[in-house]
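Hypothesis: this fold can be encoded by more than one sequence.
Test: take the structure tokens below, design a sequence, compare later.
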């Protein structure tokens, strides 16, 4: 039996992180930080991948929306579930404004993260999160554009592995330009304020 081979096992794993996430320390410095939107024109940009149902998807498909983008993988033991809880909470706090926002999760592990697996995993957090995947070559190319580093870390002598990766979350405007880069453990409240500021700027 492979790790997380059943949906019930995966839900149990997520439940543990729900409890742990409730006690995750919050950075007061980040909460108090003044929000300054920038244009990171030298990084990021369009990409072509496939969604959880096999449909071709490009970043420019969401030009009428603000995009919150994160790179991770379904077997990630900590950073990814924590960040996905934050992203789901952002949608809830935005309320009706969430219709102007798309959340995208790009897998760093296309070999194991099939479309079905991504769908099952992400739906536990919020079924509005869009999971995207490509082959290994396109994954490497996109992560370079988004200055995201990752590498496989084997677990002993087995074929199982974890992936060490950077944990930035990118806020992208309707012109496909990165406007803010959130570090790991950014609070949902700070993200919401930043999204609202960007919405106000572009409305």
């Amino acid at each position: 039996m492979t790790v997380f081979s059943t949906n019930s096992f995966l839900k149990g794993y997520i439940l543990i992180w729900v409890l742990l996430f409730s006690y995750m320390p919050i950075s007061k410095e980040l909460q108090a930080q003044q929000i300054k939107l920038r244009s990171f024109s030298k990084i990021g940009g369009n990409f072509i991948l496939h969604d959880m149902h096999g449909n071709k998807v490009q970043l420019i498909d969401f030009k009428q929306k603000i995009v919150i983008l994160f790179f991770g993988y379904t077997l990630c033991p900590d950073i990814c579930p924590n960040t996905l809880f934050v992203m789901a909470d952002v949608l809830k706090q935005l309320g009706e404004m969430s219709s102007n926002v798309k959340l995208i999760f790009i897998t760093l592990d296309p070999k194991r993260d099939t479309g079905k697996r991504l769908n099952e995993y992400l739906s536990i957090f919020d079924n509005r999160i869009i999971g995207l995947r490509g082959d290994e070559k396109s994954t490497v190319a996109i992560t370079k554009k988004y200055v995201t580093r990752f590498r496989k870390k084997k677990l002993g002598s087995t074929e199982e592995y974890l992936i060490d990766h950077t944990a930035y979350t990118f806020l992208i405007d309707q012109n496909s330009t990165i406007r803010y880069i959130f570090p790991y453990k950014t609070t949902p409240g700070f993200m919401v304020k930043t999204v609202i500021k960007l919405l106000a700027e572009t409305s």
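DSSP finds six helices and nine strands in the chain. Helices lie at 7-22, 28-32, 79-94, 115-125, 136-145, 188-202.
Hypothesis status: open.
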